[in-house]
């Protein structure tokens, strides 16, 4: 679902084969219990704008909760079709490629149907051992950025988990590779998912300087 309808629009974006998915279920809480987290207003706005800024193909918000879906649809419709589309047209542009689906499986299926090829699922995590635990290759930022930039025939979806990270079984089932975690200068390792998304996308797709 997007503000402009259920069909994914044709794009001529620089990285139109690259997508971002923010997963709210299945994720862990701080006690290691699998839960569904709530979508925040910042999740909708900030990552939509991030994806548009770097000319990516689109942004998927993943939640099976009907109440959360209805909230998101109202917000997106306001900015794409309602008063917000006239009040702030840059927000309208950002939300034009924001989609809402029930599951990560739906993201993979939609991209497969649109692109004619199964997407490569790039899992993100704050913990490097996740790659070993789930028996997935670990991608360094340089390798990942070069591969995705050069392989324009393959769709890629960069998957971020909310809460305390994606469920391990979800990673094992759907993930193809795991992106290396962001490392700060100290021991503190608690970035918000939106901050982490911005850092990762810039490292992967920033202009050469």
Automatic annotation (TrEMBL):
All residue ranges annotated as the tRNA (guanine-N(1)-)-methyltransferase C-terminal domain in the record? 17-205
Top-level taxon of origin: Bacteria
UniProt xrefs under InterPro entries: RNA_MeTrfase_C_dom, tRNA_m1G_MTases_N
Question: Per its UniProt record, what Pfam families does this chain match?
Answer: Methyltrn_RNA_4 (PF09936)
The protein's name is tRNA (guanine-N(1)-)-methyltransferase C-terminal domain-containing protein
Native source organism of the sequence: Candidatus Moduliflexus flocculans
